[in-house]
């Protein structure tokens, strides 16, 4: 039997070991509590850990949008949900709501879509389980159809919410039939057309304009760095373009001929001398206080580029409507452009007024850039528009079938995934 001293002599050793174990447990517990407390109370970074990239644009989680539009934070946020899109872009969706209201009681049917005559620039497609498929095409107009498919695809893959299965058709031509088609522009009487952002919102490579964001970034860099302040801008009306025997453009040239307040010149795309001497990049337009806009064969893709400048956009009364035109204001405190007669007969009067009221001219120019470049013509606004269109179209149209039958019993896919189509630019091909 051990002695009393031997028996109790083990206690300090055991007690020391126990205390060591308890210290380790306490330290670990305290460390975990601190980590938990910090994560629960420390200010969160609205970007860190919640950013990914789609088609070259940063996509921030929709948690970073707090209900109030902030350009630098939100303009490339492609993850806004439907409610946030409504709050960020009030008034943007009128050209979706208009045909949607009209078709609620007479739904778009498969037969109606089948009855649309395919013309040059025609694309038929469907969205099925969040995947875009190309079903049929007819002809091609430069890169327009490809650009629009890219835009739709970006809106789909960045959507934070489910999108409905739909089938639709669009045509990339300047003028299209007034049927249940998606198109870039319409006249007042063309009530059946659903308007979409035109092809150059993605890119217009043929004219070397580049992407929409490229134009805006160059304009921002030069205007917001102080290089082209309002007082430093050229106090003249600028226009460059091909006349194409269009009456409205010939009238602009006639009215501005030899006027000291105008820098208006026609471009001949096939004349190297004309191109070298007179061609100007779209961002270089921002050097001028006043920018003239004219329609083309129907709409002109120029307008949105002019709206990317802190300049006064001056346009004749327009016959053609684009998806963002409901936001145009020609009078009042929110005025963001100046409208003149279609023959430019009152252009001199308007220019003189702007020159005499330079503060008012700057206010109009500021409204222009704040409404369009800094809000409603941003990538965030564009994807919101596409997704609202997809939802509204789905509410008043049929749901597509994924397969078609061949030879009575064989089922085959009706479309080609857009990723493959964009690479091959065709619907059928042999391996290699």
Automatic annotation (TrEMBL):
The keyword Ribonucleoprotein does not apply. Pfam families: Glyco_transf_90. The keyword Transmembrane helix applies. The chain crosses the membrane at residues 21-38. Residues 162-393 form the Glycosyl transferase CAP10 domain. Keywords: Membrane, Transmembrane, Transmembrane helix. InterPro entries: CAP10, O-Glucosyltr/Glycosyltrsf_90. Coiled coil: none annotated. PANTHER family: GLYCOSYL TRANSFERASE CAP10 DOMAIN-CONTAINING PROTEIN, KDEL LYS-ASP-GLU-LEU CONTAINING - RELATED. This is Glycosyl transferase CAP10 domain-containing protein. It comes from Elaphomyces granulatus.
């Amino acid at each position: 039997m051990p002695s009393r001293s031997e028996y109790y002599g083990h206690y300090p050793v055991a007690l020391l070991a126990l205390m060591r174990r308890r210290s380790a447990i306490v330290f670990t517990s305290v460390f975990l509590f601190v980590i938990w407390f910090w994560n629960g109370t420390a200010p969160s970074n609205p970007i860190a850990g919640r950013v990914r990239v789609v088609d070259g644009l940063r996509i921030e989680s929709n948690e970073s949008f707090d209900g109030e539009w902030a350009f630098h934070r939100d303009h490339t946020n492609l993850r806004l949900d439907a409610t946030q899109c409504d709050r960020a872009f009030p008034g943007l969706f009128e050209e979706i709501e208009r045909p949607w209201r009209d078709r609620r009681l007479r739904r778009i049917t498969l037969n109606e879509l089948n009855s649309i005559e395919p013309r040059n620039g025609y694309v038929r497609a469907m969205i099925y389980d969040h995947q875009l498929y190309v079903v049929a095409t007819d002809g091609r107009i430069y890169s327009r159809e490809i650009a629009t498919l890219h835009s739709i695809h970006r809106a789909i893959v960045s959507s934070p919410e489910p999108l409905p299965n739909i089938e639709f058709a669009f045509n990339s031509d300047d003028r299209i039939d007034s049927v249940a088609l998606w198109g870039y522009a319409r006249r007042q009487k063309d009530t059946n057309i659903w308007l979409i952002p035109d092809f150059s919102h993605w890119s217009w490579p043929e004219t070397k304009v580049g992407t929409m964001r490229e134009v805006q970034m160059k304009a921002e860099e030069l205007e917001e760095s102080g290089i082209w302040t309002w007082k430093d801008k050229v106090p003249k009306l600028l226009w460059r373009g091909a006349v194409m025997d269009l009456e409205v453009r010939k009238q602009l040239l006639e009215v501005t001929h030899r006027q000291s307040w105008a820098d208006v010149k026609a471009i001949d795309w096939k004349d190297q001398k004309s191109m070298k001497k007179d061609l100007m990049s779209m961002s270089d337009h921002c050097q001028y206080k006043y920018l003239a806009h004219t329609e083309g064969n129907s709409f002109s893709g120029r307008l949105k580029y002019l709206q990317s400048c802190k300049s006064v956009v001056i346009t004749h009364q327009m016959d053609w409507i684009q998806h963002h035109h409901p936001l145009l204001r020609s009078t009042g405190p929110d005025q963001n452009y100046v409208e003149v007669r279609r023959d430019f007969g009152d252009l001199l009067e308007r220019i003189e007024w702007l020159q005499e009221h330079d503060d008012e001219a700057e206010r109009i120019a500021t409204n222009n850039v704040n409404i369009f470049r800094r809000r409603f013509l941003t990538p965030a606004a564009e994807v919101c528009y596409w997704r609202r269109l997809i939802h509204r179209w789905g509410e008043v149209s049929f749901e597509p079938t994924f397969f078609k039958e061949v030879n009575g019993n064989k089922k085959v896919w009706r479309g080609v995934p857009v990723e493959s189509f964009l690479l091959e630019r065709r619907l059928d091909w042999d391996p290699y």
